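Training component of the fellowship. As part of building independent skills, the fellow (R.M.) carried out the full modelling exercise for a liganded target. The chosen ligand was zinc ion. The inputs are recorded below so that the supervisory panel can assess the work.
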Amino acid sequence: MLLFIRSTVNGSYWGIMNQLEYYLECVDCGIKYQSIEVLYICKKCEGLLDIKYDYEKIAEKISVKTWQNRPFTLWRYREIFPVEDYSNIITLNEGGTSLQKCERLEKILNLGNICVKNEGENPTGSFKDRGMTVGITKAIELGFHTVACASTGNTSASLAAYAARAGLRSIVLIPSGKIALGKLTQAIIHGAHIVQIKGNFDEALRAVFQLTQSNPNIYLLNSVNPYRIEGQKSIAYEIYTQLGNAPDNILLPVGNAGNISAIWKGFVELQKLDLITNLPHMIGIQAENAAPIVTAFKKRRENIRPTLHPETIATAIRIGSPISWKKALNAVYDSKGFMEKVTDDEIISAQQLLARQEGIFVEPASAASIAGLKKIVDMNLIEKDDKTVCIVTGHGLKDPDIVIKTSNLNLIEIDPLQDSIANALEQKTIAMERSL
Ligand SMILES: [Zn+2]
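Fellow's submitted model of the complex:
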């Protein structure tokens, strides 16, 4: 890992958030960084950094009634984000996504309570917008004019859109030939400077570290950035608002592993603020051939062993060396959750199931949470009456090619003046039933 530190852009200042102090803390050695340097990892041990708050002061400041009177977007909960001045935020009205009760899925899986948090409803079609609104706002506060990330696709789409909104230059590094069409299209139309890297996401991430280290005027906005990851904890605040408490289980796909720890942090904060009485089990799902955290969890290892050649149809979680693996494992252990892996076939079946039974179209990585739920039901690892929320992270239109490739598309063309549409439909129905 490259050490990646530099001094502040606008001189040093203390982290004062709405007149509340906060600081950075290393998740490995516990060192605290009181002043806000442009710092991504610990100076001493290169561990990941987490932002810590004085929750007693936050509790004095927040009011559920105030929250209820604001629009249902991420910034409804503005007091819990480390932003200096709310009037200067960069936003596209992200967050406020729906929590859909899935009664047909409940019947199929014989479970009492399943909801899907549909993150495809965010402005660029994925949960990444939550982190990006905070990350880009921070970039502006710190005086940057250029932002960069490595991406399997969704982060680059979000970075490009929010950078455009803020008037910043954006650079995205993507793995060559391995990015879904919809995501690439978004990065292009928002004007990002796109560089393809020969190699996978892990190599693109190393390259963007090097780029930002040798060019300290570029702000890194991958999930290693502790401010970006703060935005993603808003998923927990919204689920609390929508359910009135925390659910028993949260299932979500795990790629670079920032989201699972961010959502867990959100629930822990809600408990510290006396807003919820229980905490959910965090259940992370990886793709079978990109599952280093699952392996570490099942073998009770303290460290992951990276997958050198990760491979899965779910490109958003095609990551062999997740940067936030330690935070993710901490979230799983602390919440008494677990990790499981699913095959590409299980992912595609789950994608079709959710689309055909519930009308919710998600990209393959998102379907991993549904595939994981099906698997753990089969393994009797979940109580029938548990409240379970599956996070589906990105919209299905992000990756249309995969649907065409996996759907046995057999279009029948007829001449409506000569042929019977009823006959054609009957043939089509038979063909569809055979394919199921
Ligand atoms: Zn450290």
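The panel noted the following from the submitted structure. The mean pLDDT is 91. The chain is about 40% helix and 15% strand.
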